[in-house]
């Protein structure tokens, strides 16, 4: 084989490979960018669907929490009505709650109970109201 052909054939193959690379590289970039865009779109769509499902789950949970709170409040109201009726009405119920509170605070220890004078069941808040005016001097003994 001719030594010149030994050099020309590999050189020709290299030139053809580089030419093919330069010819198809821009098309490959377009193809790669298209695939990258499709992947980003699919990822964004999936993320949006996940957020929608999470929002729906929160909405349903809030709805069930509200129904639970309404049912609990209905039960507490019924229990309070039964207790109030058995104690002679709202006045008796409030008196019973007051006595229960006194028992709880005395059981904890270290608490001081202050009794407030009342008139018709209402505390007398104006009794002994202090003023900032100085007290008159006591009369001098002669």
- Spans with pLDDT under 50 lasting ≥5 residues? none
Structure class: mainly alpha
Helical content (DSSP H or I, runs of 4+) = over 70%
Order of helices and strands: HHEE
- Give the DSSP E fraction (strand runs of 2 or more residues): under 5%
List the strand order in the largest sheet. 1-2
Output mean pLDDT: 83
The major beta sheet can be summarized as: 2 strands, antiparallel
How many runs of DSSP E, i.e. beta strands? Answer: 2
Q: How would you explain this protein's 3D organization?
A:
The chain has one domain (3-109). Helix content is 73%, strand content 3%. It is built from two helices and two strands; from the N terminus they run ααββ. The chain has helices at residues 3-86, 90-108, and strands spanning 118-119, 122-123. Strands 1-2 form a two-stranded antiparallel ribbon. The chain is elongated, with a radius of gyration of 45 Å.
């Amino acid at each position: 084989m001719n030594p010149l052909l030994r050099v020309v054939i590999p050189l020709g193959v290299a030139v053809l490979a580089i030419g093919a690379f330069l010819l198809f590289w821009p098309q490959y970039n377009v193809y790669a960018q298209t695939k990258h865009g499709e992947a980003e779109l699919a990822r964004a769509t999936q993320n949006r669907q996940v957020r929608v499902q999470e929002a729906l789950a929160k909405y349903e949970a809030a709805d069930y929490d509200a129904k639970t709170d309404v049912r609990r409040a209905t039960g507490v109201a019924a229990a309070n009505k039964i207790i109030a009726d058995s104690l002679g009405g709202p006045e008796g119920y409030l008196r019973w709650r007051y006595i229960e509170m006194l028992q709880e605070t005395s059981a904890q220890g270290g608490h001081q109970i202050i009794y407030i004078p009342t008139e018709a069941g209402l505390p007398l808040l104006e009794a002994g109201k202090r003023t900032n005016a100085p007290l008159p001097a006591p009369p001098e003994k002669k």
